[in-house]
Write a structure and sequence with these properties.
The chain is of the alpha+beta class. The protein has 12 helices and 18 strands. The relative contact order is 0.18. The structure holds zinc ion (ZN) (2 copies). The site of one zinc ion has 6 residues, from loops.
């Protein structure tokens, strides 16, 4: 049976994976990696509060012989395995989960609630798949520790807190990630998602995703009785007009073909049906690729927001708080080309696809901005049968951050470990 034909079958069957060439190693570490996955999935922790999660990872990595430093930039961990002279390669996993109520119906679904930073009780779920990334890195860590004759150099595994709030990478760098530890020659990460079937990986050479900006806009009106609008200035009506006007930035102002997304993800105002509130708050996420488009869109948001308030006779100019921002992730094209061939050899040619850049964002870009060539690739998470059905029906499977997000763990985790090991051995040969 040729390798290619074998893989076509293997991608649909976990049992077949056990026979895949070179996968004996993966099978050897898989039960432990899967056990960690199930544990972390059932015990998710919010951004910057990943205390137990980090401790579990640190203990396991320490047990494998890695030199582990905890509390790097909050709950972050750095685990180093030195194996003679050679390059330093960093592989990163995130640690955090999201304030989402899990509705997957899985036997190991999260039932966890926690207090968020504002003191509200919120449900918590690993709705972005970071649990799978941690399980993969543990499997990879074990294989690398047990096969030191196959590589040389320094392997640096990091558990990064607070990716979802775009703050963890910055905090780890601020806490001496590149001065207290060896500076990596290459930085690696992967992300699981439902855009590809489990068993495959996706590569985007060059631009991988988008710039992201988070804005909090407060529109000020004048409160009053709901029966007497003439005595008030209604911030809800101003907010409604503003939201609609903001939709014209991407459709009317940005040059067709350029990438721009302006999403109002929440609106908060008012307490009761017969009270006109004093103010309304909007939460926006803005995604762009080019620096000049980013500048144009942010300026248009400010202009429109202020003008709508002025048109309504608002007593004060709205406040616009730009509280988060991150640059796009750039995959070094030469590195991506080199590792594509490596992944094809490890997983089979049919299991490696070239992807379009995605509209997501991520703070892995902070590491790349330190002058470290980066390779950030996609790990297929979709059940291959459901993926094919959805494709045929023209529908989409639940995306990351959905309460229904549930990767097909067995093939995705096997592939994640196999891919990480292959890439690390290439870079540390
Ligand atoms: Zn996420
Ligand atoms: Zn994520």
């Amino acid at each position: 049976m040729t390798w290619t034909r074998f893989l076509l079958v293997a991608s649909l069957s976990t049992v077949a994976w056990a026979q895949a060439p070179g996968s004996k190693e993966v099978e050897g570490v898989y039960p432990d990696a899967h056990a960690l996955y199930a544990d972390i999935h059932q015990n998710p922790e919010l951004s910057a509060h990943e205390v137990q999660t980090a401790a579990k990872l640190a203990a396991r990595l320490g047990g494998l012989g890695y030199e582990v430093t905890e509390h790097v930039g909050g709950t972050g961990i750095v685990a180093i395995l030195k194996n003679g002279a050679g390059p330093t390669v960093m592989l990163r996993t995130e640690l955090d989960a999201l304030p989402v109520e899990e509705k997957t119906g899985l036997s190991y679904a999260s039932k966890v609630h926690a207090k968020d930073d504002a003191g509200h009780d919120v449900p918590v779920m690993h709705a972005c798949g970071h649990d799978l990334h941690m399980a993969a890195i543990m499997g990879t860590a074990a294989i690398m520790a047990h096969s030191k004759s196959t590589w040389h150099g320094t392997l640096m595994l990091i558990g990064q807190p607070a990716e979802e709030t775009i703050s963890g990478a910055k905090r780890m760098l601020g806490d001496g990630l590149l001065t207290r530890f060896p500076k990596p020659d290459v930085a690696l990460a992967l992300h699981v998602g439902n855009l590809l079937p489990a068993g495959t990986v996706g590569i985007a050479p060059g631009v991988m995703n988008t710039n992201a900006d988070s804005l909090r806009i407060t529109i000020y009106g004048k409160g009053g009785h709901g029966s007497a609008p003439h005595t008030a200035i209604d911030p809800i009506v101003i907010a409604a007009r503003t939201i609609l006007a903001l939709q014209t930035i991407a459709s009317r102002e940005v040059k067709p073909g350029e990438m721009a997304v302006v999403t109002v993800g929440y609106i908060q105002a008012g307490t009761k049906n017969n009270i006109i509130p004093d103010q309304a708050e909007l939460g926006l996420t803005v995604r762009t690729r080019k620096a000049e488009v980013r500048k144009q869109v942010l300026a248009a948001i400010a202009r429109i927001t202020k003008a709508e308030a002025e048109a309504a006779g608002a007593p004060r100019e709205p406040s616009i708080d730009h509280y988060e921002g991150t640059d796009l992730v750039y995959n070094d094209p030469a590195l991506a080309q080199r590792l594509k061939a490596v992944l094809e050899a490890a997983l089979g040619k049919d299991h490696v696809v070239i992807e379009e850049p995605i509209t997501g964002s991520e703070d892995f870009s902070y590491f790349v901005e330190q002058g470290i060539p980066g390779f950030y690739f996609s790990l297929g998470g979709a059940d291959p049968e459901k993926f094919a059905e959805a494709k045929a029906a023209g529908t989409m499977l639940p995306s990351n951050h959905s309460s229904l997000f549930a990767p097909d763990v067995d093939p995705a985790l096997h592939t994640g470990i196999a891919a990480e090991v292959a890439v690390l051995r290439e870079l540390l040969k």
